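haha ok so turns out i had the wrong file open the whole time. this is the CORRECT one, sorry everyone. sequence first:
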Amino acid sequence: MPILAVMRSFAFIVALALVAGLMSASGVHAADAVPQTREQITLSFAPLVKQTAPAVVNIYTQRVVQQRVSPLFADPMFSQMFGNMLPPGFSHERLENSLGSGVVVRPDGLIVTSNHVIRDADQIRVVLSDHREFDATVVTTDEHSDLAVLRVDTKGENLPYLELKDSDDAQIGDLVIAIGNPFGVGKTVTSGIISAVTHAAVGSSDLNYFIQTDAAINPGNSGGALVTMDGKLVGINSAIFSRDGGNMGIGFAVPSNMVRVVLAAVDHGKKNIVRPWFGADGQAVTAELAASMNMAQPTGVLINAVHQASPAAQAGLQVGDVVVSLNGHAIEDPDDFRYRIDTLPLGSASDLGILRKGQGMTLHVTMTAPPEDPPRQKTVVTGRNPLAGVTIENISPAVIEETGLHGVTSGVVVSAMQANAVAASLGIQVGDVLASINGAKVASVSDVLNAVRMPQRAWRMTLQRGENVITVMVGG
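then structure:
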């Protein structure tokens, strides 16, 4: 070998030794290090894919859709006359197919997917990696996190499955692979890194707390697996950010710790997910608020309402306190805080870090189930009035947690609406809180029913939607 080449090889080895020494001295482990040799750079994901891909399944759904022959029959007046029942010959049935992905999380055939993949499906079919097909039954669904749990009957056979990773251990820069079934072409695998643990109003979830990755997540990947380098499930692929439908390097996955909450409910035989009730509301700490409170940085949640009978009140939380941590996890904003609360087990005791008048304190709070007080009195409004076809119920802590309402403690909420309801054409939405009808204050479902009992020539309704107050006028 030429002397120059020997010298270069020697220099390369010395450089590697120096880097290794620096890494060792700084506490960096080999698993966390960037590749240092040409052999390390050319390492393949193939062993990891071979290990994990068999646990990712394809999900095909079908549903029967009643289709109107003419747009005329979507008119609210026509709907008032005929309701959901169209005259013979004015509609026909159409079969809709869709596809997505899912992840086997228990060897006995328990599968997690995105709720929007199987929503309203009349038939769900699961295809394993070895091409075997099974009919699937829905175990539970959770609109809040956009997760659903399915089960297939394996006749006692164990299936390949993925263990859940603690998603709180995921760090920005960690390598991940996304496995799914985009476009129905079969298994696909993309690689990338975790680019953020972020808040984003995307997809069908109102969770607003996601693991963000630049691994390509395409249509059909929904419900698939986001896998770390140790072969564990860190998230369920949920949505992409795109301006034209294509991949832009921004994908979102529901964290595995939220998956764990849904599976815990299944393990306890519960069909509905009951999340802890904290019983306080707050707002993000802006730069202006931080300056006014002499805070070093704008972070945390400024408490502006505390329910008198809530765990928060029992722990001693007060209006004006700033929540800065929960069980050692820093709290950046309200979405961050709600996610931390949502992933706590019922009955668990937690340490709440707060700032009160600039002084740091720790409160101890025990999470309980939200009470249904007052009873919800769930009712579908009928008769000749603008709310006909709307489902309403009394607001209680249980309803607040289920619907994601914030900033209200009592009243009546619109919880559902028939597709042909006149209210939809008036701009009334699910989640709106009814404040008054024709000048009469609304405090309960009974108040609404009394207000709409007698026909009126004109209607005036006041609604609260988030921080906005909306007035709806009909006739007159």
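The domain at 46-272 is CATH 2.40.10.120 (Thrombin, subunit H).
again sry for the mixup
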